[in-house]
């Protein structure tokens, strides 16, 4: 064999090695180089082809397979019935949701009262319409206007309850306001207190104007107004003409309910409760609780009204005698905002309450918050009012979407001369704990209730340094600084 033949043999051997299985198996059966050896079955191997149709029909009719099919059928239905029974047991034993009480539009959020439309906006009724976006941002469900009708002080002969004082605008402007407000989900209430600029709201003789009042209620309701407010309600309720006024609101045409509202000031809680029963108004603004009274007294007033009446008829306002600031000049505005938003009923705010205007300040100061002030003191005031407004908006948002705050139960937890704490709970919804201290010193509240957890989450606070929003705090011993308030929440304990 020459050299060339040797080289060819080497090449062939190398080719043969490259063609060897990669499993590491040698030609004798061992694996080599990681290749996989595939074994092809012999043609003589037996394959399973199953039973033919004739064979299946023959077996299917035997007693053994009939019994087997019946057994499987019985087991299937027993299993199905068992699962159905289990589901029924779970449904029956599960806690049932409490039915939602009947809610009308004035129970679904705060109301906003503009007593002087010209002071609120230089364009009167047209200016109010221009501010509807602002009111919508504040989550207002209703707007109480006026009075805006025509009358000269203490002269009943000049009373025109169906005529708008030209100083405030025209009827067409009111209709335009109604249309746009309704498209934004805001209801409009007219204050028809007859002698609103005079000494006596009812000319010292409510019965003498009752018929004109009835006609005016019918007139404005037909124009699309959503409700009527009457101040000094006790003066007309005690007349024989009251049932005829009430009858106007008892009519229904299948649309949303029209509200008859009233307000009183300076009356003791027992008389307010009696008046609410006697008048049967849809909402009564009582001016209670009174910030000048001790916390224990305020807690008692709230409890009496809550116990004796549906909370859907309770209206809370601290501004019946003007703005919140003028009613309580030394009171922390945010503290009383929190109180009104969390009581069982409807909070009613006067224009300016949302930014904490001080007594004597004009409402136009509200519209300066977005402008840049050059003076350092003015800037500080703007920042504070903006913070108050943001606090108001946060509470208004909670009021409108949390069932416990909208229509939940009220449970008093603590009261002292300077402080108050209570619970708002509804069925399986988020629970809320409200604590307020309007005293000049700190207070530690010992709060006990079977529903309370060890800790709760801060949802709103006037003391962001010690009680920051979203922080978890102990509930058993809750400490509040002077002039401070906090809103806590916790889940359904079940």
From TrEMBL:
Alphabetical list of SUPFAM superfamilies matching this protein: (Trans)glycosidases, Glycosyl hydrolase domain
Gene Ontology CC: one annotated term: basolateral plasma membrane
PANTHER family the record matches: 4F2 CELL-SURFACE ANTIGEN HEAVY CHAIN (PTHR46673), SOLUTE CARRIER FAMILY 3 (AMINO ACID TRANSPORTER HEAVY CHAIN), MEMBER 2A-RELATED (PTHR46673:SF3)
Chain residue ranges for the region called Disordered: 1-35
Residue ranges of domain Glycosyl hydrolase family 13 catalytic in the record: 122-399
Record-linked InterPro entries: GH, GH13_cat_dom, Glyco_hydro_b, SLC3A2, SLC3A2_N
Protein source organism: Onychostoma macrolepis
Molecular function GO terms recorded: aromatic amino acid transmembrane transporter activity; L-alanine transmembrane transporter activity; L-leucine transmembrane transporter activity
Segments crossing the lipid bilayer: 70-92
Upper taxonomic lineage: Eukaryota, Metazoa, Chordata, Craniata, Vertebrata
Compositionally biased tracts (Basic and acidic residues): 1-19
Protein name (Swiss-Prot/TrEMBL): Glycosyl hydrolase family 13 catalytic domain-containing protein
